[in-house]
Amino acid sequence: MKQIAMDSLVRTERGKGVARKLRQAGRIPGVLYGRASEPVSFSVDFHEFNKILIRHKGEQVFFSLNLQDKEGTDNRLAIVKDLQLHPVTDQIYHIDFLEVAMDKEVTVEVPLTTVGEPAGVRLEGGMLQFLRRYVTVSALPAAVPDEIEVDVTELNVGETLHISDVNPPEGSTLMDEPETTLVTVAGAAVKEKAEEEVEAEEGVEAEAEETEE
Asked: Which one of 62, 104, 126, 137 has the fewest beta carbons within 10 angstroms of its own beta carbon?
């Protein structure tokens, strides 16, 4: 469980005009939804939050939100529920957080990582393909794993690993259907086709860059 502290300023005014001014001042408007309390509107520093996203890209992060107002600071533990992006610039436009309690289980997506080189890649020239990059896990916040690791060393061409093949870390439960496919080893023909598609995409990008110049 990665826990990161972040300062936030509680806001009482709402509306598009208020949100626009916050963004112009380098802040992102957000809302914290609690389990047994009213939603809290606040804002966070754009650069600080963006750095956290870049540094922990693909990871499940718990935020220790320091909600500051005239009466003082209230600390809440939360996870990101939803990120809204600007339709043109793709910059973060709004954040929804969901408050969590240390004694209540949460259901989150955890990155899937592999260990070893598949036999089908090493001996048969195949290619390891990911059908899922994340695994859904339910656990107490302190028991949420940083990643789910699977050993692919023995996989031959045409073989797959499913959720049912994964042993969840202690204190956590896998929530995806047992038959859900995670990774597979494709044959050499599929690998060659994938490489050709990558080369074609790179060629298109190179032509576009030359046109712009």
From this structure: 104
